[in-house]
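User: Need the bound-state model for pyridoxal-5'-phosphate:
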Amino acid sequence: MVIYDFAIGQTNPETFPVEEFKQAAIRAIESEHEQFNLYHGNKGHEGLRRAMAERESKREGIPVDPEQIAIMNGSMQAVTLVGQALRQGKDDIVITEEFTYTGTIGAYKGIGLEMVGIPLDGFGMRMDALSEKLKELSDAGRLPRFIYTLTTYQNPTGTCMPKERKQELISIAAEYDLPLVEDNCYGDVHFEGEKVPSMYAMDDSPNQIYIGSLSKILAPGVRLGYLLAKEPMFSRIVNQRFDAGSNYFAAAVVAEFYKNGIWDHCEVANPVLKKKRDLVIEGLQANLSDICTWSNPVGGLFLWLRMPEDTDMDKLVKLANDKGFSFMPGLAFHVDFANKPYIRLAFGHVPDDLIKEGIPVLAEAIKQSRTSNEPRNFDTLF
Ligand SMILES: Cc1ncc(COP(=O)(O)O)c(C=O)c1O
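Assistant: Bound-state model below.
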């Protein structure tokens, strides 16, 4: 039985705004019920598009046209549609971080894209490694169709790409005329420090594709996300959808919920998440500082833990599961499923007392899964 559930990146049930959401649903039904009898096409609910344009525009400090936004059934639909739109044939390649979101791996491999992973450091995808790989692929006549990147609170590693590196990434992509997909699924799940601008706000090119979500600032069950791009890229992607549009009812309720501002709820939810992150780090510091290193995410829902090479990953999964502790092993996020000694801890929905109790349980399982008691011989995360 799972007692300490650090496996899935879900939002925190303690801060779901039940009463406000109920009232928003009532208002949306009263004012928009006639619209529920209609099909609304590919772009989706206008009020929600306007709200998301305002969200982006206020965060990024640039005007965002709601006509550049299409509401999706979660950001996952946008991730998939981008792959379907940009793939042209057999053997096509997409570049991602070496460790990336499991859903993206499933979708892109599922539609026949070959994934080429670029190593990360503490600031996201490494630009030296990207340049080298693109040169190699270009020389072989196999340039990728696009680059997909998680620049902010990267899933699974929690890293953030600074502005200077984003600028470098924009230049490298432009050199090869490659579309650049920035999946900002965790945008606004922010704990501290400055927010780094998104690449679409730094570059006017129609090769910029941006993906947002409501799953992480509100709830994954609403199944709402969005795609933002300029023409002709916008139509090229959105025309790939044949689902008659996203859930208009959910969009109407969420648009109503956000009428008085997008960040009111984030201001309630984020400090609670930040405390959970701090509790995880306190537990790791007290129990594992001599043998592990970990990320210190300034937002998002995950912490990435590096263990010594002599950790038997299969044994660790079994031992931890036997003790009621679940997590995602590094292997699940690796583009080639390499079994490296990493785990991802999703802390967003774990009650505080179970975090305090659970991290020592994990620490014990890690220690028992090693073949030595040697302290770690590394200081960095990668
Ligand atoms: C990086 C990333 N992209 C996309 C998604 C899909 O989220 P949703 O479809 O719920 O918006 C997730 C979910 O965990 C994610 O981590």
